[in-house]
């Protein structure tokens, strides 16, 4: 079975571990040598940021580290056994973005990536080179090799109180990490997406898939940016495989992250039903054939088969059961 | 008193700590706020190397870290409390030059430096910015803002035994660190030196000095490259201040490093006398008015006043005594 998965970072990586387990693979290691199955992850790159001259790809790296068993599962992001010496020093120099901690192991990844990018390799080739070391078992594709960056427009928090505050645009990471998503977005835009093209392999993976899954990642800044790359939405709509999404909300709230705040910015209610309707049915200009929501909830999404199952990705077995439910709702 | 010092890395830094102590300053801290004295170090940059996309300036950083009390005095180079996480990871990626260990603290310095260089700032401005944090007490000037790199020509160690081995050129660091200076140099050349110009402040510091000192650094790859920058030798020859060198050899051997091997490559014997004659007298196309050699040795250097004193830089007090001896031999 060929499975294509649209994924963000930490949640996407967890979901992919469950897809691997569903196929009987080690969720945190390489794919079996003799398998005919294949998993291709199409990963959001609009969170990427260049700091200290280093190109940082948080979502790709979360997938890379998690799926190869290198992630710090306790902290929830970054590398196991990480140290933070360089970040402390960079802060000592008063260098940019002290709110963005870079682990020393992580910096090595960014140095290798940046050097290859600066030498002219596209991000997809660089990612393939990193995958060659880590063997995450999954083919990791950036959604695009082009520069796309999510920017968030907010009222300037530094503006004088009382005045109508002027609007400023923040890089997604500044809004998310520095301000903890605490500044109400006026709008959220994946800058550059309209001029981008899918990375090599992305459209092919969607066309060749037997099953297409949309991970329970942020519908706005992860899944939303992937489908904002021209060609990807059309490929999903014309794919022969069914498309099934997993709701990113349980009881109206994200398990992790700030999907609710992002949804509010695009005028979508924080309910599984509203997200399902936002994705829409393939039979009606949308993306989905099937949709998983959490046990005990209901969602009426016209044209989409909805199934309520436990959605907490507490371990790869629990997540594998969600993938099985995706197959069942899709009938494959 | 204004003192200008030509210096390499570790030995140059130790010598500068003694110059500070000679003036009554803290050898490992900032200069006193109320002093009229000044120390300007003109530092070799021909050991500099770009690895992993990072611009690394070993000699400047040795001075920076040592003179601000941040050096690891036990290991003899790099930062105190250093960690090596990123280097281990870079090796895991099979990235270039695994023989060159980069500490995590050190990487932060290189990230800040490289970012500023890539933004268009000359190395002298970048160095001034780093100095602003560390307050080494000494004005640190790179010998040049231009790219100069010492290359060492050796018989290819990978060539088949028995054949006349073809010659290859190695970057100085590869020859020094990777091969431990164990490959006999056919020649040593500071590539780019002929087209370089002194960094801002270098010629001015030499002209304004009351005393000019040549640290007991490597006469070939440290001092030799500094005076290979067009204009610097002439400035030394026309300076109003006396020029005094400290012999880099005790009993015919360097205290640290491989000066003897480098001297052999340029046809100079490994004796204090031969180095003194190599530098030569200002009265005869050379550089020196005075020259310190180690107690118990003799050196006949025509036109140069020679004084034999203890030369081991065991601590800043011992080194300060050497500086006092430099003043005495120079008569200032």
Summarize the structure.
Chain A is α/β, with parallel strands linked by helices and 332 residues long. In chain A, 34% of the residues lie in helices and 18% in strands.
Describe the protein.
The structure is a homodimer of 332-residue chains. A 7-stranded parallel β-sheet of chain A has the order 5-2-1-9-10-13-14, with helices on both faces. The first copy, chain A, has a 3-stranded antiparallel β-sheet with strand order 7-6-8. In chain A, strands 3-4 form a two-stranded antiparallel ribbon. Chain A has helices at 10-22, 58-67, 85-92, 104-118, 123-134, 172-178, 202-208, 223-226, 232-238, 259-265, 272-279, 316-330; strands spanning 2-7, 38-43, 49-51, 54-56, 139-142, 149-155, 167-171, 187-191, 211-214, 243-246, 249-250, 253-254, 290-294, 305-309. The first copy, chain A, has a domain at 2-142: CofD-like domain (Helicase, Ruva Protein, domain 3), CATH 1.10.8.240. Chain A is α/β, with parallel strands linked by helices and 332 residues long. The interface between A and B is medium-sized, with 28 and 28 residues.
Main pleated-sheet profile of chain A: 7 strands, parallel
State the separation between the terminal residues of chain A, measured CA to CA.
10 Å
Biggest interchain interface, per-side counts: A-B, 28 and 28 residues
Enumerate how many helices of chain A there are, as a single number.
12
Oligomer: homodimer
Annotation keywords:
homodimer, alpha/beta, Helicase, Ruva Protein, domain 3, three-stranded antiparallel sheet, 12 helices, globular
């Amino acid at each position: 079975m060929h499975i294509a998965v649209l994924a963000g970072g930490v949640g996407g990586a967890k979901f992919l571990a469950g897809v691997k387990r569903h196929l009987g693979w080690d969720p945190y290691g390489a794919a079996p040598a003799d398998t005919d199955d294949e998993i291709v992850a199409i990963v959001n790159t609009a969170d990427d940021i260049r700091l200290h001259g280093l190109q940082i790809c948080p979502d790709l790296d979360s997938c890379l580290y998690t799926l190869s068993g290198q992630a710090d599962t306790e902290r929830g992001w970054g590398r196991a056994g990480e140290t933070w010496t360089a970040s402390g020093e960079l802060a000592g120099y008063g260098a940019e973005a002290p709110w963005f901690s870079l682990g020393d192991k992580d910096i090595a990844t960014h140095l290798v990536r940046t050097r290859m990018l600066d030498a002219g390799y596209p991000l997809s080739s660089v990612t393939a080179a990193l995958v060659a070391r880590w063997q995450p078992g999954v083919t990791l594709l950036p959604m695009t090799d082009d520069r796309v960056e999510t920017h968030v427009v907010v009222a300037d928090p530094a503006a004088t109180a009382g005045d109508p505050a002027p609007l400023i645009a923040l890089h997604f990471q500044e809004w998310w990490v520095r301000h903890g998503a605490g500044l109400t977005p006026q709008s959220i835009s994946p800058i550059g997406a309209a001029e981008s093209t899918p990375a090599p392999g992305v459209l092919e993976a969607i066309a060749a898939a037997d099953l297409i899954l949309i991970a329970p990642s942020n519908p706005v800044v992860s899944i939303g940016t992937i489908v904002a790359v021209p060609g990807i939405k059309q490929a999903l709509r014309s794919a022969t495989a069914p498309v099934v999404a997993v709701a990113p909300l349980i009881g109206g709230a994200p398990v992790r992250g700030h999907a609710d705040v992002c949804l509010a910015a695009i005028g979508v209610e924080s309910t599984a039903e509203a997200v399902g309707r936002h994705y829409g049915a393939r039979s009606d200009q949308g993306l989905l054939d099937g949709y998983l929501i959490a046990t005990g909830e209901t969602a009426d999404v016209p044209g989409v088969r909805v199934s309520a199952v436990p959605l907490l990705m507490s371990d790869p077995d629990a997540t594998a059961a969600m993938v099985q439910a995706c197959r069942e709702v899709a009938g494959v």
